[in-house]
Amino acid sequence: MSRRITDVLGDVVMPLVCGGTIHVGAPLSVAEVRRLEQELPHAATEIDVIDDARASIISEIAVDPPPVIFGADELSLAAAVHNLLFLVHPRAAEGWRKASTKSQVLAAASELASGGPPSDRREVLAFHSLLHNLFAITRTDVTVTWWTGSAVFRGRTPPNRLTAWPTMRRVRQDHTTAGFGQLFGALENLPVLARLLSRSPLTHLLATSPSAPPLAWEDAVIVLRDADMARVVCSAALAPSDPKAKVALPARYGAAFEDMLERGPDPGDARAVAAFLVHLNALLALAEAAAGDRSSAVLDAVLASERVAQRPRGLVTWLALPQALASAAPLLSMPPGIAEDSALAAVWGRHRRQVAKAVGDAVIDALAERLRATLGDAAHRDHPRL
User: Fold this and answer.
1) Where do runs of H (alpha helix) occur along 140-216?
2) Contact at 8 Å (CB) between 355 and 300?
3) Cα separations (Å) of 176 from 142, 152, 210, 245?
4) How far is the C-alpha of 230 from the C-alpha of 235, rounded, in Å?
5) Phi, psi of 105 (to 5 degrees)
6) What is the strand order of the sheet 172-178 is part of?
7) Per mean pLDDT, which range of 60-69, 136-145, 312-321 is the poorest?
8) What is the pLDDT of residues 180-197, one digit of tens each?
9) 105: which strand partners?
10) CA 292, CA 288: separation in Å to the nearest integer?
């Protein structure tokens, strides 16, 4: 029996946007999704509910939110997520896990996720409002043991016949949660995830899972050029209180910037990312401005010499960037306004000295050389403001 658009909207799209249980069915082919697109005009009631929820999400990000209307692009992205979830669903074990079938499901998901990065602010916000819960999707697995055996129910409720008479039959239930890494982190899924997140760079920038695909700044720099979205990313990046957690996202951004420099990016794009990373350094300093003359507790924790091996990739690049820019592109090395605030200027100076002592001149000079080769004349233009 062919699926109706209302089934897909209710079973997949609604919980993807609003939370709740995603009901995974057979994989969606590209042809089936194209057929379902033709039914969208007949699902106005369901789409209105979905778009109201998306508008609420966007209103928490943008001061002047653009209107969003669920359409063919959103349906394709949701179908791609559904197909990835199918591959870890118990039903996939029922005759679907042949290598050829699995490759067909992945190929359909990849085509459904394709389309390139968003071209404007409205698309960035529209796709994020659809996929904002992607990294929060979980599956609850239940292991039931009894006096004569055991069984595992992945994403399903155990039948009553197994849980009846728990005392007499010594029934025990253990619940575990499978997160993003277990559901989506298989190596063969990464190209599809990369395509999905290329379509929704704001979602990618806010991702906290270590299993997320590497960030490509060329796709995400559009977010930094919008004040509302850039502020949301800044707030999320430094939100954790634990020092290691606080630098996790900025370090990922720094690692992505390293990769960007290797690819020979557009100088204007590299300049925008560099300014953003310097701005994050300033926010870290601002958060510690009340510490007086003491050294930064965060920097002490993450740059301690005995923890060099535990430093996440990109951390040093992020923290050393202001010093490197001081010689490579002075206009980008410090956000406007710091010099006019004596307390912030003092803690900024302490941070810079603390970083320089911990990472060394050789690292800073090497980064400066790479920046000079990339930024060129862009280094001498006015500083972008976030």
Assistant:
1) 160-163, 180-184, 190-199, 201-205
2) no
3) 7, 11, 19, 24
4) 9
5) -65, -45
6) 149-154, 139-146, 172-178
7) 136-145
8) 888 898 889 999 999 999
9) none
10) 8
